[in-house]
Amino acid sequence: MQILNRTIVCCLCVSALLLSLGAEEQSAAVSAATEKTDQKVVKQALAKFNSLIGGWRGVGMIKRNSRKGAWSEKAEWVWKFDPNSTGIAYQITDGKFLKSALLTYDPQKKTYLLSTVLPDGKTRDYRGTLDKDTLVLESAPDKEGTVYRISVRRLNEKRTLVLFQKRNQGQSFYYRLAEVGYTRAGTRLAESGSGGPECIVTGGAGTIQVSYQGKNYYVCCSGCKQAFEEDPETFIAEAKKKADARRKKKSSQ
């Protein structure tokens, strides 16, 4: 009888273990699927900034239309793809307010996140939303209660303004710190949707040619080039789906 009882207990334990492992595998599969969906949403949200991708020449001014305290800087926006995240990197040379930044998107809260590195090496995070052509991001209050704001306004494909502001504790308004007016460095081969080369990774304007199995494609930046080279078949398949969907939509109109 004791042997029988022990056998039953062992069987129950094994069954429980198998059920637990099955639940863990199912949970992991659901988590992976959710993460993949989230990354697709993130990529779609960030694709709204395809017009920023590339190099820029900037002139910063403390006071608008005044050369006093003005400076020149260079910047580049590049797509950045990691196994578990997608973002757009913002690298500044000779900047007075930023050294670098990474723009990402929170699909749960439906807000954009900007993680910045300041010229002195300190970091500051911002969160905000896109209002038409202006991305407005605010930091959490620092230990002194000061809130910082960055506004990125796209005037057109060749002109962008970045405004820096702050609001002190107890104040209800923001005041200007400086503004950088950017002009695109060089020219692009095409604008997104213009009928010219299109980035196979993000759908932006294709400016860099890449090849796979004897066929040529275009990407918009070094980040997309690296992503394509690591997994070309996935991006080619996605591009084919989009092209088929566009043709189907056009034929039904």
Automatic annotation (TrEMBL):
<feature type="signal peptide">
    <location>
        <begin position="1"/>
        <end position="28"/>
    </location>
</feature>
<dbReference type="Pfam" id="PF04945">
    <property type="entry name" value="YHS"/>
</dbReference>
<protein>
    <submittedName>
        <fullName>YHS domain protein</fullName>
    </submittedName>
</protein>
<keyword id="KW-0732">Signal</keyword>
<dbReference type="InterPro" id="IPR009078">
    <property type="entry name" value="Ferritin-like_SF"/>
</dbReference>
<dbReference type="GO" id="GO:0016491">
    <property type="term" value="F:oxidoreductase activity"/>
</dbReference>
<dbReference type="InterPro" id="IPR012348">
    <property type="entry name" value="RNR-like"/>
</dbReference>
<dbReference type="InterPro" id="IPR007029">
    <property type="entry name" value="YHS_dom"/>
</dbReference>
<feature type="domain" description="YHS">
    <location>
        <begin position="209"/>
        <end position="236"/>
    </location>
</feature>
